[in-house]
Automatic annotation (TrEMBL):
Active site residues according to the UniProt entry: 135 (nucleophile), 230 (charge relay system), 300 (charge relay system)
Domain (LD-carboxypeptidase N-terminal): residue spans on this chain: 39-155
Protein name: LD-carboxypeptidase
Family in the record: Belongs to the peptidase S66 family.
Keywords annotated in UniProt: Carboxypeptidase, Hydrolase, Protease, Serine protease
Alphabetical GO biological process terms: proteolysis
Superkingdom of source: Bacteria
Length: 331
């Protein structure tokens, strides 16, 4: 795989670079005949706490060129959920049937896992929609891949990335570029990457949600893939325990690369005595002989790329940089 020779800085802090081409064929070209800019907003997981955040997200999405339609149950509330199970399932069914090409989750939280056996996965795949969400939405992304092989997206959500007081400019730009099929290469800085030059199916998402699907019909059986993971509020020992489960189940050894996004908002204890995430990564390398790459701009922080789950991509590293080739048509 040829490494890009001319990437342009995409963020003032230099954490990520984007290499885009106005006429690139995007990651869903195989099943999307045309690109348009309508987004249908749904809430398949936790309830939206403040409806004003959805309105602000709609304004910001409009500024990025996306018109939005809000599902009639997107602001519903039942216990901690965005409506009853029946309401949220109906919202997904409406999303697959309506005309907007992009279906975006307002937020994550919890709630999709209990819906998985009741979703019509063939209808979701046959709809041709570009489903996008993050965190709890990992359950939908991976189940769709496992059940149908269809591509979906993980990254930006409406409330978190477009509806807050402050939003990240590059996060918004990367979402727009991948939805429009313009993003060819995502290059990012890495201070800890093994040498790799490989191709495979890109898959992953939130680590805890991914592991919760292991042993179910909603866990994709990906061999020779590029697995990416992130998590929030999970102590490094919990991260290691989940990685150990994936390793002992034989999942990690079948991948061509393991790419680590951000692991944020955890607190160390005094008795950890130096045990932190870098120690987990050292353990991972000892335990699983698969290249590990850190620094992917993806997770529960402000900066995040929107990525295609189920798309065949390329990955390569060089000194201090990693390149995720989203559009292999040109590379």
């Amino acid at each position: 795989m040829k490494k890009p020779s001319n990437t342009r800085p995409g963020h003032p802090e230099g954490h990520a670079h984007e290499h885009a081409h106005d006429h690139a064929c995007g990651p869903s070209c195989a099943h999307q005949p045309a690109r348009s800019s309508g987004i249908y907003l749904i809430s398949p997981s936790s309830a939206v706490r403040d409806p004003q955040t959805v309105e602000l997200a709609r304004e910001r999405l409009a500024a990025e060129g996306f018109k939005t339609v809000v599902d009639r149950a997107a602001l519903a509330t039942h216990q901690r959920f965005a409506g009853t199970d029946k309401q949220r399932l109906a919202g997904l069914a409406r999303a697959a049937a309506q005309k907007q090409p992009i279906v975006m989750a307002t937020r994550g939280g919890y709630g999709l896992s209990r819906l998985l056996p009741h979703i019509d996965w063939k209808a979701m795949a046959d709809s041709g929609k570009r489903f996008v969400g993050m965190s709890d939405f990992t359950a939908f992304n991976l189940a769709l891949l496992a059940q149908t092989g269809a591509i979906s997206y993980t990254g930006a959500t409406a409330v978190r990335d477009f509806g807050g007081k402050r939003t990240d400019e590059l996060t918004r730009a990367l979402f727009g570029e991948i939805m429009r099929g313009e993003l060819e290469i995502l290059s990012f800085e890495t201070s800890d990457a093994d040498a790799v030059d490989a191709r495979g199916v890109l898959w992953g998402g939130n680590l805890a949600t991914l592991v919760s699907l292991l042993g179910t019909p909603y866990f994709p059986k990906v061999r020779g893939g590029i697995l990416f993971i992130e998590d929030v509020s999970e102590h490094p020992y919990r991260i290691e325990r989940m990685l150990a489960q994936l390793a002992q189940a034989g999942v990690l050894q079948k991948q061509k690369a393991i790419v680590l996004g951000t692991f944020t908002e955890y607190k160390l204890a005094e008795h950890d005595q130096g045990y932190d995430l870098p120690e987990v990564i050292k353990w991972l390398r000892r335990e699983v002989k698969v290249p590990v790459i850190t620094g992917l701009p993806y997770g529960h922080g402000n900066l995040k790329a929107t990525l295609p789950i189920g798309q065949k991509v390329g990955i390569a590293t060089e000194r201090g940089l990693a390149h995720l080739v989203i559009d292999e048509h040109h590379h």
